[in-house]
Amino acid sequence: MGYDYIKAEREGAVGVIALNRPEVLNALNLQLIDELVTELERMDRDDSIRAIVLTGNERAFAAGADIGEMADEAAISMLLKDQFAVWDRIAGISKPILAAVSGFALGGGCELMMNCDIIIASETTKIGQPEIKLGVMPGAGGTQRLTKAVGKVKAMEMLLTGEPISADEALRYGLVNKVVPVEMYFHETMKLARKIAEQPPIAARLIKKSVLKAIDNPLSEGLDYERNCFYLLFASEDQKEGMRAFIEKRRPKFSGR
């Protein structure tokens, strides 16, 4: 499938999607998001892909939304367009998504990054939600996911000043998993993605869903969901293979069934 604003390929069991509007620091216009979600859903349906890496380039993961698309809009036209509805489909991707982030991850770029499950950042990364400087606020989950990630007081500071934080500060607040030199950020993300892709894919999907349940639901509901997923995995061939391999002291060969 041909795309204008993303590049998609597969490296073994890892699908790789690169945002591709370098002339505008990968600003997120409507077409780019539509192409991205289409490809994420395609990879999610492809059983040969077990993990997905989302990246930009060294200068920018994504520097924000394409302001030119919105500058002259009215409230009703924005409501009817409902441009953020397509973002909700990202949350429906069942496979692990890893973000390889460098340079600017601002506004919509920060929101897109926070939709990923694991984030590896280069030491040059700048992360923020500067929408207030444009007279607006985040609309694709920035106030919600950022608060859950870094806590109320830090989220308030970032959102109300619009000032970005460094990769090291993001690491201290738990917003990213790891910070590496810029020449290593994609390599390190792919290394981790390949390791995840070696795991049983059904278990990986259910683990992802269970963790997301922990974010949005009371502990009792999350525990009940986790327990049912645990029992369900005993219907899989991978559970039999994994436990048999452990007993036989050999490396398991997971089939995804």
TrEMBL record:
Coiled-coil residues: none
One example of a Gene Ontology biological process annotation: fatty acid beta-oxidation
Family: Belongs to the enoyl-CoA hydratase/isomerase family.
Organism placement in taxonomy: Bacteria, Bacillati, Bacillota, Bacilli, Bacillales
PANTHER family, sorted: ENOYL-COA HYDRATASE, MITOCHONDRIAL, ENOYL-COA HYDRATASE-RELATED
Entry-linked CDD domains: crotonase-like
UniProt KW keywords: Lyase
GO-annotated molecular function: hydro-lyase activity
UniProt keyword Transmembrane helix, yes or no: no
PROSITE patterns associated with the record: ENOYL_COA_HYDRATASE
Keyword check for Zinc: no
Protein name, UniProt field: Enoyl-CoA hydratase
